[in-house]
Design a protein that fits this description.
Order of helices and strands: EEHEHEHEEEHHHHHHHHHHH
Strand content: 5-15%
Largest sheet: 7 strands, antiparallel
Shape: globular
Structural class: alpha+beta
Helix content: 55-70%
Length: about 425
């Protein structure tokens, strides 16, 4: 590449700034398709002319691409050995110089003061946060459309005044977004109206987590196949509803955070304070996501445990109508949780629980009985002339073997 490319990154993704041709070359070397990146020039936060100049003054001379971190892209970015900022935890660096790829020597921040000024770094970190928020909101919106979420309906059914406040928050946020779009800034009066909205959203999200935890406990307490069938059939639609509520809460908090980011930029506060605000917003987002992913992980494990019980073979034989329902409901819940994980940006993997066929299960039991009684029956062939007593003894021993096979399975109903 003919010119240097500045690189900035955090836990959400990394950004390349420089000549557009050089950026395309860098993406090609990293094997990242350009359509999997975001053109920074088209970011919603930069559509406001005043904010664009304040936040990203060099856009006239540079192009930029933001790449969301996935497991694959994170590994590729690490190849450059970029420098970490000890105060923020973010990284930055310069790649490519005079057609040489890779990090530019054992560079120190102090030696690059002309490139990484405090004001520029603080603004770019805020821009990266805004891009991450924009991408997360898009993915969550797509998820809610995909599952045809009826969040308003779910919350109204709860007959809870606190939950109903969430609907009014949605209206306030929409009005603030419209004001920002048409006027370019938020008035103090509008911001005052929004000041307590985040707390309301948090309360609704916590309520949704409690509902999911309660469902997890119900699934865990299912002691047998029939109760597992009843529980999974009952909770499956509820899981979908509360995942939708939690998703909308995350999206609403991101919308509020985006308004907050734009307000902080418009206020023109010092770089150090701007970085601190970015850090607080980022840490709070991580905590919200972590509390939710921990809850869904526990729910996923509970479903796996109840579907893949040790009584798999015998319950297929003795409960042929119940077992398929347990497996189907378990797969439906697992798929719903996997779609939610994808919306959160986690690896998308749908576990599949296999339904054991009745004839396969019978074959396994028959083989176990045969293994235990075959030798006894072979011995019996030489005793038919000795009377029924010996035959009865052999039959009793064979019966003991059958009891042993069936006795290894827990109670099924």
């Amino acid at each position: 590449m003919a010119h240097e490319i500045e690189v900035y990154g955090n836990d959400d993704g990394f950004m390349l700034l420089g000549n557009s041709a050089d950026i395309r070359q860098a993406l090609a070397e990293l094997q990242i398709e350009e359509n999997h990146t975001i053109d920074i020039g088209k970011a919603a936060i930069l559509k406001n002319a005043h904010r664009a100049v304040k936040l990203f003054e060099i856009m006239q001379k540079h192009s930029g691409r933001w790449v969301k971190f996935t497991k694959d892209s994170a590994e590729k970015a690490q190849k450059y050995g970029l420098l970490h900022n000890k105060s923020t935890g973010n990284f930055m660096g310069v790649i490519g110089q005079a057609s040489k790829s890779g990090i530019k020597g054992n560079v120190q921040f102090e030696a690059m003061a002309g490139v990484f000024t405090p004001d520029k770094v603080a603004n770019i970190e805020m821009l990266m946060l805004a891009l991450a928020l924009e991408q997360a909101m898009k993915e969550m919106t797509d998820y809610l459309k995909q599952i045809d979420a009826k969040v308003d309906q779910v919350l109204r059914q709860q007959k809870n005044a606190e939950l109903a406040k969430f609907l009014s928050v949605a209206g306030l946020v929409m009005e603030a977004e419209n004001e920002l779009q048409h006027i370019g800034s938020l008035s103090d009066a509008t911001w005052d109206q929004l000041s307590n909205s985040a707390q309301t959203v948090n309360e609704v999200q916590q309520y949704s987590l409690l509902q999911l935890k309660d469902i997890t406990e119900k699934i865990t307490s299912a002691a047998d196949t029939r109760s597992a069938k009843d529980v999974l059939t009952t909770v499956r639609p509820r899981i979908g509803e509360w995942l939708a509520v939690a998703a909308d809460c995350l999206r609403m908090r991101d919308r509020i955070d985006m308004l907050k980011v734009q307000r902080f930029i418009d206020m023109g506060i010092e770089p150090d304070l701007l970085s601190k605000h970015r850090f607080v917003i980022t840490e709070n987002r991580r905590a919200r996501y972590r509390s939710l992913t921990d809850t869904t992980a526990n729910l996923q494990q509970a479903v796996k445990n109840v579907v893949q019980g040790k009584d798999d073979t015998m319950r297929v034989i003795l409960l042929p109508m119940d077992t398929p329902v347990v497996v189907r409901e378990g797969n439906a819940i697992a798929s719903a949780l996997a779609r939610f994980d994808k919306a959160l940006g986690k690896e998308y993997a749908v576990p599949r629980f296999n339904e054991k066929q009745w004839d396969q299960a019978m074959g396994e039991v028959g083989q176990a009985i045969a293994d235990g009684t075959g030798q006894l029956m072979h011995q019996a062939e030489g005793f038919f002339g000795e009377g029924t007593k010996q035959i009865g003894n052999v039959a009793n021993e064979a019966g003991d073997q059958i009891k042993k096979v069936f006795g290894n399975f827990p109670k099924l109903w």
